[in-house]
Amino acid sequence: MRDAYCDDNRCEIMNQEELNNKLLEIKDKLTGIERKSDKRIYLLCEVENSYAVNKFLFEDVGCRFVIATGIDSDNCFEVLYHYSYDETGCVITIKAFIRDRQKPAIQSLTPFLPAAEWIEREIHDVLGIDFKNHPNLRRLILADDWPAGVYPLRKDLS
Amino acid sequence: MHDTVRKPILAVGPFHPLQEEMEFFQLTIDGEKVTDIDVRLSYNHRGIEKISESLQFDQVPYLVSRICGICSASHPLAYVQAVEELAGIKPPERALYVRTIINELERIHSHLLWAGLAGHFIGYDTVFMWAWKYREPVLDLLEEITGNRNNYGTVRVGGCREDVPNETIPKILKELDLIEKKTEMLTKAVLDDPVLHARLKGVGILKKEDAIKYAVTGPTARGSGIAIDVRRDDPYAAYADLDWKVITQPEGDVFAKAVVRLLETFESIKIVREALKKLPDGPVAVEVKEIPPGEAVGHAEAPRGETFHYVRSDGGNRPVRHKIRAPSYVNVPSFKASCIGQDIADVTITLAAVDPCYSCTERLAVVDRHGSITHGGEALLKLSREKTQRIKKDIGAQELKLEDF
């Protein structure tokens, strides 16, 4: 019996097929669903829908937040939110695309998901992505004397 | 807004010489009680994610095994699993068993290390001596199998670099029996000790709902009644073929976390024993040619919780992005939930209870409102130990001596 993450009536425990169906509820906010395998699902969305999709995965599906990855892609920024649905061992990744390279910004998840506080601060440090409504967007990993406006994980950093 | 009265800050850190990473905890205190906690980290940022982009896929395991000496089997394992998933590589059966054996030996020595340090922090140096003494043979076994006590460097994309030679199996089994007996004695002594009950129960409680909000993993989650374990939930290596169980405790306090770790040690011994008995014949690695473009995730259950790696490839011979999340990254922020309302004397052990690759407790210092240090690390350790002594006296417990065993 899987009594893991959702046994406090926060949400019902699903098998993989039910999980797949559940994910379709948020279809309207997505630009695509990629299935690399049964247990590896990628949900693609634009930046304005990222908050809603994340909230859905955490609160309605009952996924565990793992971490986020910020990536400087060729013509946009990507923020990948990795979740795990431990009842079936499925790793779900939300891939949010930020098209505005000049002023990259995305809604912060920290108000409902304290686990995201550090990683949002970290991505803000290394890629200069603004997390709107973040309660505490101070530097996390950059040194105090690191120059402002220089982002170490941006590709154009020489 | 300016605070008219500034609360005193208890500064823990920032340089933690015994810990793997430097962390700085600032505790706001009101008398004996902690009312807020702020954590600063990355004093020693090594830029491993960035370095990884400059290394070839087969070089990265040796880099990531150096993220943490104690978890030096889990990180490379999570990474190679991500790359194997990306490239569709299936390592041979025997390699999966070898990986399991190395990772469980790592868990045994890591949990014993924790038990020892936890004992040390509350003034139970006998527990410290025992636990570290019984940990030693595990490190010797690892040295015999891999050549190193830590930083094993055994795992590679497509399998393992080295085998567990069949002729060493009887010796490992014999040693395991001994380790099991000793750990059993240690566990009994710890779990039946009334002083430890009084000292650790109800201390540093991480409630289940907080554990979910902070998304903690590993023994920190299992000690708060959340039965998650990557080894069972998304089985890798040989875990699905073996008989073992996930240990949970509902209380969420320091004692619960201690129980989880100690009992897990036995499960690990069981796993290694069974894996050695079932160890299939055959090669331990397949040849890997090219890594195609794509992305994948890999995760593994390290002694402290889930370690998670995301790898993206553009078809070249190096990853274009490699994200790493160590378990302490999510476990440490949960201090905000577990430390507030605690006595200062309990903070040492509460911070230690998530096993955050700690060690730095020597550098605890109390700073008064003018910023000058009034209390050294020694003094705080003393506070913690004095509390244990007080409880001992109240209960009338006998001091345990090493010679008794």
Largest sheet of chain B: 5 strands, antiparallel
End-to-end Cα distance of chain B, whole Å, is 60 Å
CATH fourth-tier homologous superfamily of the domain at 16-103 in chain A = NADH:ubiquinone oxidoreductase Nqo5 subunit
Q: Bin the helical content of chain A.
A: 10-25%
Mean pLDDT of chain B: 85
Q: What is the H/E string of chain A? A: HEEHEEEEHE
Q: Give the percentage of residues in beta strands of chain B.
A: 5-15%
Helix-strand pattern of chain B: EEEHHHHHEEHHHHHHEEEHHHEEH
CATH class (first level) name of the domain at 9-44 and 330-404 in chain B: Alpha Beta
What does this structure look like?
The complex is a heterodimer of chains A (158) and B (405). Chain A has three helices and seven strands; from the N terminus they run αββαββββαβ. The termini of chain A are far apart. Chain A has a domain at 16-103: 2-Layer Sandwich (Beta Polymerase, domain 2), CATH 3.30.460.80. In chain A, the strands form two sheets. A five-stranded mixed beta sheet of chain A has the order 1-2-5-4-3. With 158 residues, chain A is of the alpha/beta class. Mean pLDDT of chain A is 90; it is low at 1-7. In chain A, 44% of the residues are buried. Chain B is an alpha+beta fold and 405 residues long. Chain B has a domain at 9-44 and 330-404: Enolase-like, domain 1. In chain B, the strands form three sheets. Chain B has a five-stranded antiparallel beta sheet with strand order 3-2-1-9-10. In chain B, strands 6-7-8 form a three-stranded antiparallel beta sheet. A two-stranded antiparallel ribbon of chain B has the order 4-5. The longest helix of chain B is centred in the first third of the chain and has 29 residues, at 93-121. The A-B interface holds A 2-5, 8, 10, 36-37, 39-40, 64-67, 69, 71, 80, 82, 84, 86-91, 93, 113-115, 117-119, 140-142, 152-153 and B 41-42, 45, 47, 49-50, 85, 208-209, 212-215, 217, 226-228, 230, 233-235, 294, 296-297, 299, 306, 308, 310, 312, 321, 323, 325, 329-330, 333, 336.
